[in-house]
User: Fold these one by one.
Assistant:
Number 1:
Amino acid sequence: MCCAVCDGELRTAHRQRLKDEEGDLHGSGEYRCHKILVTLHQDQLKTTTTVAANRDFPEDRIWLNGKEDNINHPRLQSCLREIRRLARKRRSSGDDNISKILNYKVHICSVNNFPTAAGLASSAAGYACLVYSLARLYGVEGELSEIARQGSGSACRSMYGGFVQWIMGEREDGKDSLAQQVEPENHWPELRILILVASAEKKHVGSTAGMQTSVKTSPLLKHRAESVVPGRMEEMIEAIKKKDFEAFGQLTMKDSNQFHATCLDTYPPIFYLNQVSQRIIGLVHRYNAYYGTTKIAYSFDAGPNAVIFTLDPTVNEFVEIVKRSFPPESNGDPYLKGLAVSPVSLSQDLLSAVETDVFPGGVSYVIVTQPGPGPMESQDISVDLLGTDGFPNASG
Amino acid sequence: MCCAVCDGELRTAHRQRLKDEEGDLHGSGEYRCHKILVTLHQDQLKTTTTVAANRDFPEDRIWLNGKEDNINHPRLQSCLREIRRLARKRRSSGDDNISKILNYKVHICSVNNFPTAAGLASSAAGYACLVYSLARLYGVEGELSEIARQGSGSACRSMYGGFVQWIMGEREDGKDSLAQQVEPENHWPELRILILVASAEKKHVGSTAGMQTSVKTSPLLKHRAESVVPGRMEEMIEAIKKKDFEAFGQLTMKDSNQFHATCLDTYPPIFYLNQVSQRIIGLVHRYNAYYGTTKIAYSFDAGPNAVIFTLDPTVNEFVEIVKRSFPPESNGDPYLKGLAVSPVSLSQDLLSAVETDVFPGGVSYVIVTQPGPGPMESQDISVDLLGTDGFPNASG
């Protein structure tokens, strides 16, 4: 059984006060991050997960990207427990096969085709995919995002395709995280998303730990959450619905910058943007200034990689500029991955308007993609990661 | 005639609403930046200016750092006009010599011994020094900071030594800028200031232009000005008065970070901190974490150079760490300038706690200095920059 998910973010973060069940306000960490996200297409960025249950397995085990990992991780255990609980509850309706495998242990095998923990929301995709796969195994249908979010707070939004509104929770266990679809993946067919991979280094600060420190120490974050983001959220949803790229792009960039501003206002400060990120930001603004309109927008999550939004007719030209500004270092790997890009020649005017110093190797590679659906079951047996013996095969 | 000034900043920026003469609020740009600054000692960082008036000079002229510059610059003209106006007003009290030279044109020659326009407040020091020199020439005494601020909004604070409170103005002409001394330069004798020169490149965005864009576009700046800085200003003055380095250092760092956060929240965003700045910030926090107390603080103005504050007993050790982290590239120039630093050996414990990757050449050189007095007239004729013919000599 296998599924494929991934997502990029066009962030509009927002933290709102959260009431607990008794109606009281929580303590210091009472803000919730509110975002709009785009699920990326699995043809380009995907997590593939295979799960198998067998009477001969003595224990639950998991392999991630080719190495066995700790099955006792609390978030993982929480997902497993929850989905088994749901499956048991529904068993009464009677599928003997399900009853049987609920007594078996499982083997889980998962691989990403993009760098883990480098700000590409790998854990969100991973948990979403895992929960989806387990649900198929145990025949659980319906609302899975509640289970997924027990793995990673952000996983619940990866259960949906297209444009997703996500209210991130505060809790370690992700139980207060909520997601819903704003528009499906085919709503804005011209929209393209380019991932400029600036570095595959593991980031210094995980996004969960970083956000918790920001909530505690950044005086600007509270203001951002209460006074800036609510208005931007509404404008963003409106811009998506109207397919208004000018508004969409500006909001995306302003909000990304403000998120990183609150990281810098954290004590000690957190830097996710490196010099390559800064150069990409400069390049985008010069490009837009040349055309006098927002043709390109950037967003950076908890890492240096740029998520670039644009419309189909601009892709070829912008990719050409990125290639000239950050020429590939010839290590044999392809520089362009994903959707096809055609070479174009650039006018001298445009070049002198946007170019500054060339930075070879600053961008390792570019993934060209578009909005995509949520997790899907693959019918293609060749993508299975577990062999007939229940252990990872060559691709797992 | 010559004078020597310079200053580093321990910034506590604050923008407060400004009432104009009629008591109305100004329009969009109504915030005033409120800071505490330290004037640096002229033994290490100085601007030297010589002015001369002569009946044979056909016109006013100025040379800056060895090259003739535009005497018609509006700010410069404003300073000249204002000081001549003051001199004329006081002439009634009768000095024939002053009356005479008021009819002459002047030659001005000024040099900095530190990089211009790289975030070391060169224009503040330059205008302060110019105004002081012209005042001596024309025999104008008393309050000069009002004139200096017509040159550079920040120049008025360079008219004072020691710890200075500065309410920066909004106006292009600097007329709404105010400064006053908090404590004199000998108040905190153990305080040391290290300038880590990260880059002598000209900065992309001047600090005045940058601030004006921030006021117009950053939603976080308004909140910072109204709700964060006023409290910090009071705490900072208290920390200086009590010589409480822990409080002083933390406030300095938090406020520097928040200033750069609002630069990032500006649209398009402004980056003054480069990768060297980011590494220095990381190093300082690891060093303080190792000792469990704030022994070092950093502040960055509108550029990548770090202004480091510490107390005398920490200087040797920290300089050694900077030297190891950013080893000098052997171009023959001295790496350490200013006050004497003694080599020390570092414990293995400390090294493994603070060090990461080594970045050769990241810091070009380090200036070790301390708080200093305001502008002073030099009695040493050998520092004169204009020869007996009224034109720049070899040192000008």
Number 2:
Amino acid sequence: MNKLFIIKIGGNVLDNPEALKKFLADFASIKEPKILIHGGGKIATKLGEQLGIQSNYINGRRITDSQTLDVVTMVYGGLVNKQIVASLQQLGCNALGLTGADGNVIKAVKRPIKDIDYGYVGDIKPDSVNSSLLYFLLKQNTVPVFAPLTHADGTMLNTNADTIASVLAVALGKHFDVRLIFCFEKKGVLRDVNDPDSVIRHLPKSSYNDLLTKNVFADGILPKLENAFAAIHAGVKEVLIGEASDLTKNTGLETEGTLITS
Amino acid sequence: MNKLFIIKIGGNVLDNPEALKKFLADFASIKEPKILIHGGGKIATKLGEQLGIQSNYINGRRITDSQTLDVVTMVYGGLVNKQIVASLQQLGCNALGLTGADGNVIKAVKRPIKDIDYGYVGDIKPDSVNSSLLYFLLKQNTVPVFAPLTHADGTMLNTNADTIASVLAVALGKHFDVRLIFCFEKKGVLRDVNDPDSVIRHLPKSSYNDLLTKNVFADGILPKLENAFAAIHAGVKEVLIGEASDLTKNTGLETEGTLITS
């Protein structure tokens, strides 16, 4: 099968114009089929403040009321997505911006209210990806660029970018050898959270289970690792967790970050 | 050749939720291949005011400085486009939002500075449409929904929605029998601007030339008519100018608005 890179970048890159510029140049230079998923960054929060809309968080998750939904739809789906698309086009990379609503590429449901009402937040079900449209676009050398938004019942929904990256990787894992890359602010998963050079270069499932029982992992990385192994379990060939500035190395054979495999 | 409807709606519909809802239901019910192009409406101006950005106009055209460009990219490319896409999806119409930047569908240039610097405004050259991507999407029963934005040299550009509709009609006129429909606030082109019932139902080129010499047309409609006949001249089969609320009739054989032909 052909290789496919599915790459998620978060706020720390989006909020830094120089870092974003370097990242997009590295991304554009990848020769294989590729998909980019971007998060939101601080721009939405800043715009919300300018408009007098308070950002509310519960357990680290933004509560998306209707005003906040408008802000994230504008910022993620409009400003951030289109600036990235225009920049990639200039770099000769035929980017095409998408949300889950466009072409009904990702079906979602509004998160059911249990203890907390998260508002207009999308939960994605497995098997909810219209992979035939994505497959066609990739075959035409077009590069999908996803904003972290989905839809249900006629409304947009704010949706976790890591989750979008994972479901895309799982769906397209049927057609491609997918390497799913999560860019974050560290070089990779650290053996010692206080030592930035203690990157675990290769983390197969067996080592993961071993290190998990030894409580090696910092709390912050655990959800990412669970997410990564869920993707591997669902058929994604490789997941890589690393720094955005190492993208070129992390799309090669000798990776800088943490390569996760079955 | 198959029929294709290319339909442009402007601010008067976008700014009225009830009118927009009816319009989108009518649009979704069109069985033939179709493309929607939306304008901006007052939302961008309102958001700009809330953010303390002044809207400047010269000769009725918005001057797009970098702050205004961010606002229109957010509002046209994000909020308006994605709300329309989500609404159409709910109506069972597989909409996919686009700007000229996405898939490099429309190539533009930043308007050259002569007497006036319009700022980040896009001018579209003929033969600048990537019609193969659009053709594929239409064949898959996907419905492109265009925001009035294009791109050049790594930046988005604010672009006239009527112009986008026209260039798309011309480019796709090679593959389809295109009816290009401009929705505006009147029933059609009026013989007497003070009599809303004086709609000219059919306006072939010969009648147009005749009525032009008799100074029948109000000044406001002249640019639209020039635009329409330019499209006819470039191979578009039919142009219809009518009211958004008459869409169902205006996509049929017995049209309510003004049907322009060669």
